[in-house]
# Entry
Amino acid sequence: MSPVEVFARLSDPRTPVAGPVVVKTAVVLGGSVAGLLAARALADHAEEVVVLERDDPGPGARPGAPQGAQTHVLLPAGLRQLEPWFPGFTEKAVAAGARPAPARLRSTYSDGVRKIVGSDTDMLSSSRPFLEAQIREHMLALPNVRSVVARVTGLEFSDTAVTAVQYEGGRMEADFVVDAMGRSSRLGDWLRTAGWEQPPMTRMRIDLNYTTAVLRRAGEQPEARAGVSMHSPGDPSGIAAAALCQIEDDQWMVTLSGYLDQRPGSTPEEFVHLCRTALPGEFGAIAANEMLGGITTYRHADSRRRDFHRLRRFPARLVATGDAVASFNPIYGQGMSCAALHASCLSEYLRTGPDLAVPAHAFFALQRSSVFEPEIARRFDEVAYLLTHPATLARPGTLVRSILANRRG
# Structure
């Protein structure tokens, strides 16, 4: 089966059919979006699922997710994955304060030129802590899932498989373990120390700097629920991209980003000035609102990919998901939706009744697996939103349309 066909199957919006219970206790390391969704997938195949998360859930961004205070977006692919896992998720999230962002209420600009609407898809707009809290609430409502606040310190292995998880204050025997500890995961170190192969890691330098402000949303406001303004390198404002979105509690969230030494909007005064002078009008209108809490900054040094699929010797009953496998350039907002797709990979793997005595190579194989022209815009969006496989952009019909559009442009 081709990567395009596998991707389409994993993206199927139908509710997953619960498969066989194949393990007694499954342990997820990390309570991020990736970890919470992995726990949901495991709940159909384990008698008990335990999520070990070092941060005690509460209001605001988790200390273990310093990027949590910045703008995040749940792409259409992520929303498509969440609904089958948690039926009614969107309706309940909106009732709690999330904002629907259909295509007609989203705006995208390329160097100041507004792009036509591409894919007619829906998004959900909220802060990252709000979204995590919604997923956690749904996940903990499952009868066989529980969460424990604890910092994981290591793993135990037999000659062939992972057998237990060590954490501050104790240990827990495990029949299956999912690493969802994010881009700073220590799994590779633990594997090397225990005599296993360490997954090679590729780094791509990014040096992306974020500045984010939260503003009150009151009175007459721009129609847009979410918007993005992309800038070519060398823009005199120093802005690589800017994003706005309505979030819960009648607030706006606006983010400016720049590469290398560019830190646009690092003071409230500069932030407002750039929104009014260097960005489309809706940014300036939003910046006129009261700023709540000042400016929050974050630096993303690099993208990382750990190539688990290249390992010849790897313990059974152990997989990795989310940023622990690959962390993207966050400017494209694909991380959370990719984590949702990883959960579908895990579900697909476990539903096949795999031999858990051997390494989960099949799971890692599953994981591996536009301005002017309306149809090109739609197809590009569906790839960017993780709805279709990138190879679809190389189909002859798409290439011909692109060539003709560029000639007309």
